[in-house]
Design goal:
The complex is a heterodimer of chains A (310) and B (571). With 310 residues, chain A is mainly alpha-helical. Chain A contains 13 helices and 2 strands, in the order αββαααααααααααα. In chain A, α4 (86-121) runs antiparallel to α9 and α11 (262-271) packs antiparallel against α12. Classes of the chains: A mainly alpha (310), B alpha+beta (571).
Chain lengths: 310, 571
């Protein structure tokens, strides 16, 4: 077991380093960030001084080595525009994103599982049709459409804060997180509902469920105790991976709601060609995703010894 | 020039463009000379609104607006209009300027050049202080200017000081002080220039020439960068909350002019790419009192707000134009450039793409420079496809000629550049190679000695003077290349060069009398634009804002296209 964990961890580190190198290469190709300001050319002497300040006068390999070494110490450098520590920018935005991701996952699993179970248990009933149709629509409508519709029609009404909102208007986090979380949950919940319905139907056909029924157990116990447990496995897997994606920042949703998470941070950094921030956020997303996948893998291995051996 | 962070909203203008293109196609199908109707149409532009009348008003109130995150609010590196908005509120320089170039007093009560304008003497108002109590004396200005000019500061806007003697030595690191600035007398600032400039006083209104207190320290002092202490009508209410907002409060110890009326100004940081849309939405949902808006909603916003007197429309000191590589074929002849210019139907573009909100240019200088503006000095800005065709034949622009045309992608230039390409191809029969590239690549490409053809260009003036267009964009010195084979480091990247023009501009800059100076500027523009067409003017810059005039009075637009914060009152 320990060997399995070590092997997977080593792979994870490799993935992170490789991904870091790729994004580093991509931003390096963007060219000299200090050559111009607005439409004006910065005097070569000043541009050179600025490049030297950021180590951009070094060869790519040296820059990358320095970056990795600094990153290992959680130092992501300073941003091009204002010289702020990037780690501080991450520290300000990551908690918001994590909060949003957790709320979204909770909403998403609650709605998805409930709808999926109802649809499976009352197969071919009106409820099933409603869930199937709604989930198809949910999967089909892009996140940004849901987000914009909510911003235009719902934001600023009742408990939902306005978008945009004057920064001096204080709003508790649970109110601020509601609409973006609903937006993120909409697509995922639809997917979870379909997953749940399918997997529950499959399990309900299994022999042990028939046995349970034959023993005369009430239907609630059959489904709640016996069937649901097994049927939940794919849902848990999906939710785990989904959480990994959300931790990396929901770029579109956070940007639409101007929610101060890493996704919004990334979208702003891309617009401003602020490479140190772009690299740091991407590295953070990769780490979050790889770490959660690793956790899921290890959990699997704990649950099912066959995976360990292969 | 100021960085225009108003890259516009991400909202596509596809519908509008389709209209223009469809219109063009239709016309060419009808076999009618396209000029016939195009030349006849007059642009139904959005008229300028008069300044808000002065009302007595009363003090108080919090004025709220959205801005994108500035690069800096510390004067040494304040550059785009958002950064200037904050620094102008926090700092008062030697003088202030109005959009038409009129100068009025700031910290200085008098500003006088010597006979040949190579030495300037600024008399400071005695006894004014920074908000921490430090005196605002001539040393405070010297300190601020040296902080901007020092090489280690890495300021992107130190060029505002490039006329001051000793600037070059500070930029290359060989000097630690500006030799041209004399602060021996605390109430008098004496400035020696490396070349005469009778308009130098205008430059001192630029934020990088603000005074700073001793607590500012070097430019890298991050505590001061985020919480600048200044001498302006407002002070910071807590440090800059990056990516969130900035709150300013009235400076009750303000001494350089009348105190502000507003209690506070709240600046909420908006997304960089959809700033205008966010401001517009924020105005409509009651969060902001001042807002820009994306082009597609301008007509709607105007219809809703103009009747309520909530609409500001101003022609500002800027121009959108085509930079022409005048040293390289195929556009190295006046006939070729005029052919290109006269084949462009500016009205159709102003109407179709910009929905009538932009005005076709008839000159290179903006109309807001009332003393030097010559309506129609760009005679080739008139749409005349027949004449264009003749000139093209003369210049050897034929069916086989390929003209390169580059623009920066992602900033809403796709539509109108496509319309220009189609008009040129239809009216001249040439082939236009239109390419959108990232902005940095555009800049790199156009600086090369081998660059050819046309490049999209825009300019917003740093100071309200014609020389900020003519000297900065068209003189030989502004090419910034020692030899024709060098990369251009200046703003004249089309490499227009005419000794007669250079001489006129140099004489104008050294002419103390305003009327005589403007006259020289007029002659210079006549040569560079009227005769040589060194660049091709397209549309003049015009700006629109929505303003909450129900709550606030005296809200106008300043030279930097920002609200006149110190004058705003509650109604």
């Amino acid at each position: 077991m320990l060997r399995f964990v070590l092997r997977r961890s080593a792979q994870a580190v490799l993935v992170v380093v490789a991904a870091t190198f790729l994004i580093f290469l991509a931003t390096f190709a963007l060219g000299d960030p200090f050559a111009s300001t607005g439409e004006k050319v910065v005097p070569p002497a000043i541009a050179a001084a600025n490049r030297a300040k950021f180590g951009l006068d070094q060869p790519l390999v040296v820059q990358f080595g320095t970056y990795l070494a600094n990153t290992a110490r959680l130092d992501f450098g300073i941003d091009f525009d204002q010289g702020r520590p990037v780690s501080q920018m991450l520290a300000e935005t990551v908690p918001n994103t994590v909060r949003l991701a957790l709320v979204a996952i909770v909403i998403d699993v609650l709605i998805g599982v409930t709808a999926g179970v109802i649809a499976a248990v009352r197969r071919y009933s009106v409820w099933d049709v409603v869930v199937t149709v709604l989930s198809t629509v949910g999967i089909g409508v892009p996140t940004f459409v849901i987000g914009i519709v909510l911003v235009v029609n719902v934001a600023g009404w009742g408990p939902f804060p306005a978008v945009p909102r004057g920064f001096a208007v204080e709003v508790p986090w649970y109110q601020e997180v509601l609409l973006p979380a609903l937006t993120l949950a909409a697509v995922d919940a639809a997917f979870v509902a379909r997953l749940m319905r399918g997997s529950l139907l499959e399990v309900l056909r299994a022999d042990y469920v028939r046995t349970a029924r034959a023993k005369g157990l009430p239907e609630r116990t059959v489904i709640g105790r016996h069937a649901l447990r097994n049927a939940l496995i794919p849902v848990v897997t999906y939710a785990g991976v989904s959480l990994g994606v959300l931790f990396g920042g929901a770029i579109i949703t956070e940007t639409i709601f101007q929610y101060n998470g890493v996704g919004y941070l990334l979208s702003r950094a891309i617009v401003n060609s602020n490479a140190p921030v772009v690299i740091a956020v991407v590295v953070f997303s990769v780490v979050a995703y790889v770490f959660l996948s690793l956790l899921v893998d290890i959990l699997y291995a704990v649950l099912d010894p066959r995976i360990r051996l292969s | 020039m100021r960085r225009s962070s108003a890259v516009g909203s991400a909202v596509a203008l596809t519908a509008a463009v389709t209209l223009v293109l469809a219109g063009c196609t239709q016309r060419s199908n009808q076999d009618v000379p396209a000029g016939a109707d195009g030349a006849a149409t007059t642009a139904a532009e959005y008229p300028e609104t008069p300044d808000q009348p002065r009302v007595p008003g009363r003090p108080g109130g919090t004025f709220r607006l959205g801005i994108v995150e500035p690069t800096a609010i510390d004067p040494y590196n304040a550059q785009e209009s958002e950064g200037i908005l904050v620094t102008k509120a926090l700092f008062t320089g030697l003088v202030n300027v109005r959009p038409n170039g009129e100068i009025y007093d700031g910290v200085a009560s008098a500003w006088t050049p010597n006979a040949d304008c190579s030495q300037w003497t600024f008399t400071l108002k005695p006894g004014t202080t920074f908000s921490n109590g430090e005196p605002v004396d001539s040393a405070a200005f010297k300190r601020g200017w040296e902080r901007t000019a020092a090489r280690d500061s890495g300021s992107a806007v130190s060029y505002h000081l490039n006329e001051v003697a000793g600037f070059d030595q500070m930029q290359d690191g060989s000097a630690a002080a500006l030799s041209g600035v004399d602060a021996a007398d605390p109430n008098t600032l004496r400035v020696a220039l490396s070349a005469p400039d009778c308009e130098f006083a205008l430059r001192t209104a630029a934020p990088p020439l603000s005074p700073v207190p001793t607590v500012a320290g070097p430019a890298g002092n991050t505590a001061y960068n985020d919480l600048p202490i200044g001498n302006g009508p407002f002070t910071m209410d807590g440090p800059w909350r990056h990516d969130t907002g900035i709150r300013l409060v009235r400076n009750d110890t303000y001494g350089a002019g009348p105190k502000a009326n507003l209690d506070a100004v709240e600046l909420t940081i908006t997304p960089p790419d959809t700033g205008a849309l966010t401001e517009y939405n924020g105005f409509n949902n009651g969060q902001f009192d001042w807002a820009r808006m994306p082009v597609p909603v301008q007509a709607q916003a105007r219809a809703a707000n103009e009747p309520k007197n909530q609409w500001i429309s101003k022609k500002t000191a800027g121009i959108n134009y085509l930079q022409v590589q005048v040293q390289q074929p195929p556009l190295n002849s006046v006939a070729a450039r005029k052919a290109i210019s006269m084949a462009i139907d500016r009205n159709a573009i102003a109407q179709g793409v910009f929905q009538g909100s932009q005005v076709p240019a008839t000159a290179f200088l903006p109309a807001s420079f009332t003393g030097a503006f010559q309506d129609g000095v760009c005679d080739a800005c008139r749409f005349d496809p027949v004449k264009a065709k003749e000139l093209a034949a003369q210049a050897g622009l034929t069916a086989g000629t390929r003209v390169a045309f580059q623009f920066n992608s992602g900033s809403n230039h796709d539509e109108w550049t496509a319309a220009v390409k189609q008009q040129l191809e239809r009216n001249l029969g040439i082939a236009v190679d239109l390419t959108g590239v990232p902005f940095r690549d555009l800049l790199t490409n156009q600086r090369q000695p081998t660059a050819t053809g046309l490049f999209r260009a825009g300019w917003s003036a740093d100071y309200p003077t014609p020389s900020n267009f003519l000297a900065s964009l068209l003189t030989t010195k502004a090419i910034g290349a020692a030899t024709p084979d060098d990369v251009a480091n200046g703003d004249n990247r089309g490499r227009y060069s005419n000794p007669v023009f250079d001489e006129l501009v140099a004489r104008a800059v050294a002419t103390p009398d305003v009327a005589a100076r403007n006259d020289l500027y007029k002659q210079a523009e006549k040569i560079a634009i009227g005769d040589d067409l060194g660049v091709i003017p397209l549309v003049a810059r015009q700006q629109f804002r929505l303003v909450n005039t129900t709550t606030f009075g005296n809200v106008n637009m300043d030279f930097w296209e920002n609200p006149t914060l110190p004058e705003i009152t509650l109604r």
